[in-house]
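From the methods appendix. Each design record in this collection lists the tokenized structure first, followed by the designed amino acid sequence. Records were kept in a plain field format so they could be parsed without special tools. The example shown here is representative of the layout used throughout.

RECORD:
FOLD TOKENS (399 positions):
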């Protein structure tokens, strides 16, 4: 499906389908005396399950650090997880269970753009804090922002635009040598919008860009591969907005066909999983595979990264540093700061006000983080990484 669904139309369609019932009351759940519950709906089964697992690890590590330091205003933090298999109707059911049965105070790390689109009318109606969803879609970045929605990450549009600028300004490719491959849903459309915008800056008509898609929650990329092969003589790069299974299959098939292309993808691809799929194929497959990131290299020696690595060893010793868990850990750290500022008399309004008061928060990643009444996105920094033959990721300058 091309294009994002309007919020009112989406809400009506879900009500008619029986997936989204009218909210019973508007007030968000108050926290208990001894703890604050947060819920996460994410894929813990299916082809995208690694995302859910890593998100859970990152938030739980951030919560464990806060709890070991005495909690927040006398309360401990706890994460309640539900599996939605990356399926929007299941996300609706999971979120309703978390809010109405588990009585969570807020939601964190909900995975997927279409999944957020499905639950957004409900959480706004219930005035439930919706913090750091794993999505860069525009529907979560309204202007002015929705009061209860706070993003940690830059948008997919910002990431995809940064990739195009890198290819043109640093790699010196012509705009007409760049194609786009994206998932056929709001996630993919969000990335495409960033490409289209920057292409206009380079005097390139977006309608003339070679643009291919694949169905969401599948790895069915054969039609996309065929179109790229048909246009191969004039193409030098493909900007991808995909998750790791279809991304891997797309790269594998085009490399096997002998195409020497530069492949970029947005951070949602899960760089660790992508590398594990591609590296065994050999050096010719790993060449010129880039991923834009919204956090630094998780193995770097920056202050925040050292704290993250130490916390991971303490609370999740079986886990390796990973881009997804690092994002959740940093987002969780910002959330903890908001809770501290809200104080003991915690409710949704106090929490939102406290988050909007965070300015220039220095977690040690080299970029200040913060929000405001008209700014509900903590970071706009996009980093670049390139895959090495051995499977590691090396930082590169995108500018």
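DESIGN:
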């Amino acid at each position: 499906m091309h294009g994002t669904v309007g919020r009112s139309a989406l809400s009506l369609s879900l009500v008619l389908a029986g997936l989204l019932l009218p909210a019973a009351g508007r007030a968000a759940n108050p926290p208990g005396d001894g703890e604050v519950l947060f819920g996460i709906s994410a894929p813990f089964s299916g082809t995208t399950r690694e995302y859910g697992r890593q998100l859970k690890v990152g938030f739980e590590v951030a919560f464990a650090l806060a709890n070991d330091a005495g909690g927040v205003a006398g309360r401990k933090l706890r994460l309640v997880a539900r599996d939605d298999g990356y399926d929007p109707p299941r996300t609706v059911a999971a979120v309703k269970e978390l809010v109405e049965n588990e009585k969570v105070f807020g939601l964190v790390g909900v995975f997927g753009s279409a999944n957020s689109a499905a639950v957004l009318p409900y959480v706004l109606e219930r005035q439930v804090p919706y913090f750091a969803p794993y999505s860069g879609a525009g529907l979560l970045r309204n202007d002015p922002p929705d009061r209860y929605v706070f993003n940690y990450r830059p948008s997919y549009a910002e990431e995809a635009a940064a990739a195009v600028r890198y290819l043109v300004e640093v790699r010196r490719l012509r705009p007409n040598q760049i194609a786009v491959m994206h998932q056929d849903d709001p996630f993919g459309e969000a990335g495409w919008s960033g490409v289209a915008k920057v292409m206009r800056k380079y005097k390139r008509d977006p309608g003339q860009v070679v643009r291919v898609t694949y169905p969401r929650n599948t790895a069915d990329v054969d039609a996309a591969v065929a179109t790229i092969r048909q246009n191969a003589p004039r193409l030098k790069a493909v900007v991808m907005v995909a998750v790791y299974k279809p991304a891997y299959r797309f790269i594998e098939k085009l490399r096997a066909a002998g195409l020497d292309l530069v492949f970029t993808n947005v951070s949602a691809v899960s760089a660790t999983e992508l590398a594990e799929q591609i590296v065994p194929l050999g050096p010719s497959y790993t060449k010129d595979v880039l991923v834009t990131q919204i956090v630094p290299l998780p193995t770097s020696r920056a202050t925040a990264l050292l704290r993250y690595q130490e916390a991971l060893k303490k609370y999740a010793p079986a886990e390796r540093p990973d881009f997804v868990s690092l994002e959740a850990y940093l987002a969780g750290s910002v959330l903890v700061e908001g809770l501290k500022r809200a104080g003991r008399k915690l409710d949704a309004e106090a929490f939102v006000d406290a988050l909007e008061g965070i300015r220039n928060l220095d977690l040690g990643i080299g970029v200040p983080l913060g929000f405001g009444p008209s700014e509900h996105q903590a970071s706009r920094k996009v980093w670049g990484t390139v895959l090495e033959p051995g499977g590691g990721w090396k930082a590169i300058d995108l500018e």
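APPENDIX NOTE: Residues 1-25 have pLDDT under 50 and may be disordered.
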